[in-house]
Design goal:
This protein is an all-alpha fold. The protein has 9 helices and no strands. The protein has 2 domains: 55 residues, Homeodomain-like (Arc Repressor Mutant, subunit A, Orthogonal Bundle); 128 residues, Tetracycline Repressor, domain 2. Helices cover 67% and strands 0% of the residues. α5 runs antiparallel to α9. The protein is elongated. 20% of the residues are buried.
């Protein structure tokens, strides 16, 4: 289907499409997901959905971008101690409990990732996800080193290490489901954070404004 680039897609319409996609994914999963299933969850005109997307994989690439930026918006970039920011990342990406609905959506995103080597659009989006997360981690570690909250380490190396650990933990959790040792895996991630910390209290301007 040929799409006219002159036709804008309002943010509100895109948000509704993405929310409909989330609901459809949580109900059907990746393998059984169809454009029609998403259309059934879309409260606006179905023609808008079919106009913008030819198939589910094209739509899921956009959904991945949408989910990434919503996730990044949840991370308190400012006014938070670097170690607490890393712990917040662990809590968001590897929560102590994972309900059925977010589990099914995460599993669908994992299946899309597995398909990325064969789909240039998906591969490019996952490269962007990795780039954004690694940049966030690198900046956080660098801030910690410069403030004296972290020991002297290479921010790029630590960002790569932590991103690899987070990705591996999430993949194992999705594939092992209830057999996954969540508590032990979280403790492994938190141990990596403690390894970075010094015994020196953070400067006043680096503290998170009294947040616990």
């Amino acid at each position: 289907m040929e799409k006219s680039e002159a036709t804008p897609r309002p943010d509100s319409v895109k948000r509704e499409i993405m929310e409909a996609t989330y609901r459809a994914l949580s109900e059907h999963g990746y393998e059984s997901l169809t454009i029609q299933a998403i259309a059934d969850e879309f409260e606006n005109s179905k023609s808008l959905l079919y106009y913008h997307y030819d198939g589910k994989d094209e739509l899921l690439v956009d959904f991945l971008d949408y989910a990434l930026h919503r996730f990044l918006d949840e991370i308190p970039i400012h006014n938070q101690h670097p170690a607490k920011r890393l712990r917040t990342l662990v809590d968001i990406l590897v929560p102590e409990t994972l309900d059925e609905e977010p589990y099914r959506v995460q599993l669908a995103m994992f299946e899309l990732r597995v398909n990325a080597p064969h789909d240039p659009a998906s591969r490019q989006q996952y490269l962007e996800v990795d780039r954004e997360l690694k940049e966030l981690l690198r900046d956080t570690v660098q801030q910690g080193v410069e403030s004296g909250a972290f020991v002297a380490v290479d921010p790029d190396v630590e960002a790569e290490r932590f991103l690899s650990l987070l990705t591996g933990v999430r993949v194992r959790r999705l594939t092992m489901d209830e057999a996954f040792p969540t508590t032990t895996a979280r403790e492994a991630l938190l141990t990596q954070i403690r390894r970075l910390e010094t015994d020196t209290p953070p400067r006043e301007d680096e503290a998170d404004n009294g947040a616990s």
